[in-house]
Specification:
The chain is α+β, with helices and mostly antiparallel strands and 139 residues long. It is 22% helix and 35% strand. The mean pLDDT is 96.
Length: 139
């Protein structure tokens, strides 16, 4: 199912709740919605479709594969940062923000298994943007 995109700034600033196994339908829906908007979007958080659960979907820029993460948490960052120009499907305009070059993320996959993986560069930037969404932080 493809959901409408939430553009309500007040709602987008709401902190999302932890996802549970009952929220796996949201992960599937989020991924389908991302794929429907992939011509102008490489990542989404569940609050962007009006569901306030800690779930993100994104495209791994290096491999082109699609990912879904439940309850993603950055557990380690590189010291190196850079200024990035970012856009968001939920809000208009381009904004500058500082991002870590490399991040290590602990998350649950679509089977609720805990995983840890390191991401870098553009894919790390996308994940940081979507985790910010989960925390109610907008660029």
């Amino acid at each position: 199912m493809i959901s409408e995109i939430n553009h309500d700034i007040i709602l987008l600033q709401k902190t999302s709740e932890p996802a549970t196994e009952k929220d796996l339908w949201v992960a599937k829906n989020l991924l389908e919605t991302l794929q429907a908007h992939e011509d102008r979007c490489v990542g989404m958080a569940a609050n962007m479709i009006g569901v306030f659960k800690r779930i993100i979907a994104f495209v791994d820029i290096d491999t082109g594969s699609h990912w879904v993460m439940l309850n993603p948490e950055i557990i380690k960052t590189s010291k190196e940062t850079y200024l990035a120009q970012e856009q968001c499907l939920s809000i208009s305009g381009i904004r500058q923000t500082r991002r870590y070059r490399r991040i290590k993320v602990r998350y649950q996959d679509e089977h609720m298994n805990i995983k840890i993986k390191t991401f870098h560069d553009k894919t790390a930037q996308i994940i940081q943007h979507e985790i910010d969404h989960c925390n109610g932080i907008l660029i």
